[in-house]
């Protein structure tokens, strides 16, 4: 009896299994393992005696110019792409439903088309009439963007091969299906096959392609992780439903810096660029109150000032609550432990709430000192100096460690009217730009000097 060559794949994380099971061992999801036929059978006994062609090799030294870039005129989008769109590149963009991915890409396609690029927008989720209605609402009906609605991968590739556009937008990759794969649209095999064919077509024909990807409930792009490895750039479009601000963040970019961000504001006429995000995130900051600290951070190459807010209140629960929004909860727990173990400042029996104003998300270790400052300010009911910004990493011993790009952080703070900086004692600063620098050696000294605690 011939052995079955079908594979069992988890539709949630893409992990392969030898047989069907109710629960995926890799991600823990239930009822997500499906049986799929392989994409190709492959050779059974090696490659045989037939030789292939020799691949030409070259040295690392080159005189080739860097790849040319096409600017859209949307500075925030161009910044996240690394300085413009590279021909032949593949960009994957993900985000929550309704966050504005289609709006952003339609505005981007119109901006590139008005600068002379041949742009094609293929929608697999909406009819052409729906996309035209959005274009009219955004004032883009006169943009020279050609529109199509199709989900058949073969028909899409044939259309792109005939039209030879400079830019193609596929919305979304989860809706495409290939007649060579026996699986439903959106399955692991279909997403992998569609992404592979589109990326290969982009490299072979020199067409820049944007792929829209759905996200899971954890916020990660759905489908196999191999799709993120295939493309050149992975971008997330983030934001809270209650906030009008949207953040475009690159987590992978082969043609520019990763972790670069672009900030937009959702308006009735579409997404508007925010040229100075620091002023935006601090715009609603009024009189100094306990529990507020301003952090001078770096997002990619851009300095951004954000407000870290903390609230500490007595808890009526056996296990006090720790609610964190916009920060790493594990990092916050570590800082709370260091405050108690090294500084003698307990938070037992107290509910702790932390938030980054404006819907921003901060992942830098340099935010440790600002988090500790907000927590101590809330606990001691004492406001930090309103003209001060904070940055510095906290070690497990309680010592403050220096961070990178201190000069850029201070320049951005001074531009917004801040005159004092609280930073680690070992931080090297060349040219503080007239700002008063207050150096602190460790967390115990910080709690004692600023709040008189510890």
Automatic annotation (TrEMBL):
| Cited Pfam families | AAA_25 (PF13481), ChlI (PF13541), Zn_ribbon_LapB (PF18073)
Residue numbers binding ATP: 95-102
Start and end residues of each stretch annotated as Lon-protease-like: 351-454
Q: What does this protein do?
A: Plays a role in repairing double-strand DNA breaks, probably involving stabilizing or processing branched DNA or blocked replication forks. DNA-dependent ATPase involved in processing of recombination intermediates, plays a role in repairing DNA breaks. Stimulates the branch migration of RecA-mediated strand transfer reactions, allowing the 3' invading strand to extend heteroduplex DNA faster. Binds ssDNA in the presence of ADP but not other nucleotides, has ATPase activity that is stimulated by ssDNA and various branched DNA structures, but inhibited by SSB. Does not have RecA's homology-searching function.
What the entry lists under CDD domains is as follows:
RadA_SMS_N (cd01121)
Protein name (Swiss-Prot/TrEMBL) = DNA repair protein RadA
Q: Does the keyword DNA repair apply?
A: yes
């Amino acid at each position: 009896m011939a052995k079955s060559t079908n594979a069992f794949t988890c539709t949630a994380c893409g992990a392969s299994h030898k047989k069907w099971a109710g629960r995926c061992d890799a991600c823990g999801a239930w009822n997500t393992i499906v049986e799929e036929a392989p994409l190709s059978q492959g050779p059974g006994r090696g490659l045989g005696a037939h030789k292939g062609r020799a691949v030409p090799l070259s040295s690392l030294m080159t005189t080739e110019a860097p790849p040319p870039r096409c600017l859209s005129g949307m500075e925030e989008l161009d910044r996240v792409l690394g300085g413009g769109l590279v021909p032949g590149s593949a960009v994957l963009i993900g985000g929550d439903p309704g966050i504005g991915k289609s709006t952003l890409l339609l505005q981007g396609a119109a901006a590139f088309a008005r600068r002379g690029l041949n742009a094609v927008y293929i929608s697999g989720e909406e009819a052409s009439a729906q996309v035209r209605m959005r274009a009219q609402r955004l004032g883009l009906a006169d943009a020279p963007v050609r529109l199509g609605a199709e989900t058949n991968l073969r028909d899409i590739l044939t259309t792109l091969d005939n039209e030879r556009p400079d830019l193609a937008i596929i919305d979304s990759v989860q809706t495409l299906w290939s007649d060579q794969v026996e699986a439903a649209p959106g399955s692991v095999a279909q997403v992998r096959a569609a992404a592979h064919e589109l990326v290969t077509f982009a490299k072979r024909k020199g067409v820049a392609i944007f792929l829209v990807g759905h996200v899971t409930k954890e916020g990660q792009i759905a489908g196999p992780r191999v799709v993120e490895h295939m493309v050149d750039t992975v971008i997330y479009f983030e934001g809270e439903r209650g906030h009008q601000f949207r953040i475009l963040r690159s987590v992978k970019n082969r043609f520019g810096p990763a972790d670069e961000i672009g900030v937009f504001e959702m308006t009735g006429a579409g997404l508007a660029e925010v040229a100075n995000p620091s002023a935006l995130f601090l715009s609603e900051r009024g009189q100094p109150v306990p529990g507020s600290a301003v952090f001078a951070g770096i997002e990619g190459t851009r300095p951004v000032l954000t407000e870290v807010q903390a609230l500490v209140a007595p808890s009526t629960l056996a296990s006090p609550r720790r609610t964190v929004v916009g920060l790493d909860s594990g990092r916050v727990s570590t800082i709370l432990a260091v405050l108690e173990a090294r500084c003698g400042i307990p938070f037992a029996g107290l509910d702790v709430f932390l938030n980054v104003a404006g819907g921003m998300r901060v992942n830098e270790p340099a935010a440790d000192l600002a988090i500790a400052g907000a927590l101590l300010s809330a606990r001691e009911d004492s406001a930090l100096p309103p003209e001060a910004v904070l940055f510095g990493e906290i070690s497990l011993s309680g010592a403050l460690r220096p961070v990178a790009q201190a000069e850029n952080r201070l320049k951005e703070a001074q531009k917004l009217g801040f005159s004092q900086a609280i930073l680690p004692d070992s931080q090297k600063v060349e040219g503080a730009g007239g700002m008063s620098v207050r150096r602190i050696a460790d967390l115990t000294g910080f709690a004692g000097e600023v709040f008189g605690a510890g």
